[in-house]
Design brief:
By secondary structure, the protein is mainly alpha-helical. It contains 50 helices and no strands. Belongs to the PPR family. P subfamily. Keywords: Repeat.
């Protein structure tokens, strides 16, 4: 054994903070400090010793030197020096139990102050014996059991390594793993990460279970960046992990709203043959529902069933809710039965989801039966449950029951929300409230005006006219409000002639139009795009001495912005402010929206700055408009700035703004960012629309990820979102590029079955794809279909046809198609001639290269002058060369002199 007294390791200065006295940090024997024979000092020391022992602080003499903790003889103190303790422990090196007993007995002696050397020696002894592994863990947990206890991680690692060398211990990695676990156990995650990195730097690879424990702790604390960094380091040292690793990383990605990446992580682990457990499958199902991809969720559930795994209750809850949201109530009910048969109880979230599904399908009886059943089973309905039922019954026009539930909700001590109240109001308006009021004889002109406005604001002119006749038939005289409502109805549908007719009738009957009447008319004309007539009505209002209101001013500013006169609207705003008008958020939003529509994003942003400086807080509409504008102008950085600023203020984008952001990133082929935004859109409770799906599908097609594109298409179909012609064309194009003709053909058939008529773009995609794959026969069928549908092929289609026949060596057919183009009035482009002469597209004609190509082309065709159409092509090339301002060689002049005119060439 090496002598512990030779070449002691130097101790870093910052280690001194960890121990009461620096004298106890080495293994050299320590000489007690001499004490002056001062009774006072001795008495003083004896008096302070107990307190200092309790506080853990070392008392000092007046000279500043440390004094011994207890008044003992010199021989007693020497026996408890650190060297003595270390040597005694080393004598029990092969008897871990005895070493532990000795250390515990020494710690009870108040003359002993624990050193790092003694602690490390004991730890090496304990981890060396299987009998004392748990004691080693307990020892470390005690040592690092609080926020500031124990030395810094790197310092302790160095001492563990150093003491193993000095005292001839085999370096046992168990001690280091136990240390890592101790830091995690008391939530000292920064120290745990330092310990992990320190171990790697010293060539010590942590054991996988302890890495998983640290990874899980980071995810639980939402330290996602640190978790990702930890995982990347695991991979860099060749540790791919196990089922626990996959679960932790997928959970982290889902917390970040990245279900696409979580699914990819799962698929990769599965492809590598990793032994995945039920927990991983459950979280993969959560990822599928979050995308959502319910086909995948169903497949994973079936796989779990095949392995006789029972999904978690939370997994059933998530999947059932997803199927209800999709509108697939039958599958949701089947999963509910499966959940109950597996021994899991029906929880409130699942019950509420199913009630919502019943109401959507108009089966309110089943919803009510389920509601009563859960109350009988002891589940207490919450605010969400009542809201779902009240809304569902109102939409199904069972307002009386909805109101009973509203009253029951209050009795149960659950405070209704404004949403509940609005549901009831809408339900009463759409039910028989008016009939009851009329039949009871209590309806007056004010009652009629309430219902009249309800119809007029939605432009329901027919219903409004019917109600008007009923009001007059009951002997009631319409009021100013009644006329204003009818004018509003006609303005909403753009029938300004009838709006003015009602206005004239109003005046003839002695009613005086007010500021609301004129404002409605002004707004109607602006919405029709007739700014001149709108301004005339405004001038007319001023002429009859009616003062505009803020409502009027806002209508004018918004109207001018709508018709593309935003600069004029901004000038009007300054003038209105001078007249006492106080702008609001709506005012600035109108101008910002006008500039965005005109593509003047700098002006729009300046108005936004002006708005903020004037003390008016932007709202959702402001940010949504700016985000949309910046995306359209391809300024994605500024669009994201607006998005983040909005989120920092607690505001949430609407579907239109998300759509703009997603489309922008899709066009930049940044599908990771697009996918993150797609997930965020759903997490905030919004539903992707047709435009969002179209952008995502086009984006995946552009990066050649047709698997993701078709998954989104299936998801659209499952959710009942209509798939338009552009989406089908995009998918067909993508599969044709990959050579998957059968999939492209199936999609084309599906499109036709949906009643969607292909356009020129669809046919162009089909013909290009088929010709590129040598499918001339199928391409011919598409051409025949175009003829039947009366669709005239475009230049692009003809180019595809000509190129296809040229590749097959059928030059005669290529030339015939060229002539057919001319007969149809289509002008061949450079690509057409490139194909005819060389069989491939070249650069645009121009410069010396073009001059050479013309010569080559005419020589080529001259050698085949007997083919039909050759002369015509040569003539076209000759005309093209003339227009290029290049001098023609005598040879070409000689050939062209012999060419007939185009008419005779035919």
């Amino acid at each position: 054994m090496k002598s512990p007294f030779k070449n002691p390791s130097p101790i870093p200065p910052f280690l001194l903070r960890c121990f009461p006295s620096p004298n106890h940090l080495c293994s050299q024997p320590q000489t007690p400090f001499p004490h002056p024979p001062n009774p006072t000092a001795t008495a003083s020391h004896e008096k302070t010793t107990p307190d200092s022992h309790l506080t853990g602080k070392q008392p000092f003499s007046h000279s500043g030197n440390p004094i011994p903790r207890v008044t003992r003889t010199h021989s007693e103190h020497t026996r408890l020096t650190q060297t003595h303790v270390v040597n005694t422990l080393l004598r029990h090196k092969n008897d871990a139990v005895s070493a532990l007993k000795y250390f515990r007995s020494v710690k009870k002696n108040r003359a002993f102050v624990e050193s790092i050397d003694a602690f490390c020696v004991l730890l090496h002894i304990l981890v060396g014996s299987s009998q004392t592994h748990k004691h080693a863990q307990y020892l470390l947990n005690n040592k690092f059991g609080s926020v500031h206890s124990g030395p810094a991680p790197v310092v302790f690692l160095d001492h563990l390594v150093d003491t193993s060398k000095r005292f001839d211990f085999e370096l046992n990695w168990r001690a280091f793993n136990y240390l890592l676990n101790s830091y995690v156990r008391v939530n000292r995650l920064d120290d745990a990460l330092d310990c992990f990195n320190g171990m790697l730097e010293r060539g010590i690879i942590p054991w996988l279970p302890y890495m998983n424990i640290l990874l899980t702790a980071l995810v639980r604390r939402n330290l996602m960046d640190q978790a990702r960094e930890l995982y990347d380091k695991m991979v860099s040292i060749g540790v791919r992990g196990d089922s626990f690793t996959v679960y932790a990383m997928m959970r982290a990605l889902l917390k970040q709203g990245k279900p696409w990446e979580a699914e990819g992580f799962f698929r990769e682990a599965k492809a590598q043959g990793m032994d995945l457990d039920a927990a991983v499958y459950c979280i993969a199902i959560h990822a599928a529902c979050q995308k959502p991809d319910l086909n995948m969720a169903g497949e994973l559930l079936r796989e779990m069933e095949g392995r006789e795994w029972v999904p978690f209750e939370s997994t059933y809850t998530t999947v059932i809710g997803a199927f209800v949201k999709q509108g697939n109530l039958a599958e949701a009910l089947r999963l509910k039965d499966e959940m109950l048969s597996s021994g899991k109880p029906l929880n409130l979230v699942v019950a509420t989801s199913l009630m919502k599904g019943y109401c959507k399908h108009g089966d309110t009886d089943q919803a009510l039966d389920l509601f009563n059943k859960i109350k009988e089973d002891g589940l207490a309905p919450n605010k969400v449950t009542y809201t779902v039922l009240i809304e569902g019954f109102c939409r199904n026009k069972i307002v009386k029951k909805a109101y009973e539930l509203y009253e029951e909700m209050k009795i149960m001590g659950i405070q209704p929300t404004v949403f509940n109240v609005n549901s009831l109001i809408r339900g009463f308006l759409e039910a028989c409230a008016l009939n009851e009021a009329v039949e009871s004889g209590i309806a007056n002109v004010f009652t009629y005006n309430i219902f009249l406005y309800h119809f007029c604001k939605d432009g329901k002119v027919k219903e409004a006219c019917s109600l008007w006749k009923r009001m007059v038939a009951n002997g009631l005289v319409p009021s100013n409000v009644s006329y204003n409502n009818m004018i509003l109805a006609y303005c909403k549908v753009g029938n300004m002639d009838m709006a003015h007719t009602i206005f004239s009738e109003m005046v003839e009957r002695g009613f005086k139009p007010n500021v609301i009447t004129y404002s409605i008319l002004i707004d109607g004309h602006f919405r029709k795009g007739d700014a001149g007539r709108a301004i005339d009505v405004f001038d007319e209002m001023l002429g009859v001495q009616i003062a505009p209101s803020d409502f009027t001013f806002n209508i004018i500013i918004n109207g001018l912005s709508i018709v593309g006169r935003t600069c004029e609207a901004k000038d009007m705003l300054k003038m209105f402010v001078q007249k006492g008008f106080i702008p609001v958020c709506l005012t600035y939003n109108s101008i910002i929206n006008g500039f965005v529509k005109e593509g003047a994003m700098d002006s729009a942003f300046r108005v936004y700055i002006e708005m903020c400086e004037s003390g008016i807080s932007p709202n959702v509409v402001t940010y949504t408009t700016l985000v949309n504008g910046f995306c359209k102008s391809n300024n994605m950085d500024r669009a994201l700035e607006m998005h983040y600023e909005m989120k920092s203020k607690g505001l949430q984008l609407d579907v239109r703004a998300f759509s703009a952001l997603i489309d922008g990133f899709c066009k930049k082929r940044d599908m990771v960012r697009a996918g993150e935004l797609f997930s965020e859109l759903q997490q905030v409770g919004l539903t992707p629309n047709e435009i969002v799906y179209s952008s995502m599908i086009s984006g995946f097609r552009n990066v050649n990820n047709m698997e993701a594109a078709i998954d989104l298409h299936k998801k659209m179909i499952n959710e009942g979102i209509p798939c338009h012609q552009h989406i089908y064309t995009t998918l067909i194009d993508g599969f044709l590029r990959e050579g998957k003709l059968l999939l492209a053909s199936n999609l084309y058939s599906e499109m036709l079955a949906e009643g969607i008529v292909p356009d020129v773009v669809t046919y162009t995609v089909l013909l290009n794809g088929l010709f590129n794959k040598g499918q001339l026969e199928n391409a011919q069928k598409i051409l025949e279909e175009m003829d039947r549908e009366g669709v005239t092929p475009s230049v692009l289609i003809y180019n595809a046809l000509i190129a296809g026949h040229f590749r097959e060596g059928n030059l005669e057919e290529s030339l015939r198609l060229h002539n057919e183009m001319l007969d149809r009035g289509l002008v061949p482009d450079d690509t057409t001639y490139d194909i005819l002469v060389n069989g491939k597209a070249k650069e645009c004609w121009g410069g010396k290269k073009a001059y050479r190509e013309f010569h080559v082309s005419i020589r080529f065709l001259h050698g085949r002058i007997n083919l039909p159409g050759c002369l015509r092509v040569m003539w076209d090339l000759y005309k093209k060369l003339q227009s290029s301002d290049h001098m023609m060689s005598p040879w070409i002049e000689d050939v062209v002199v012999r060419l007939e005119t185009p008419s005779s060439v035919d």
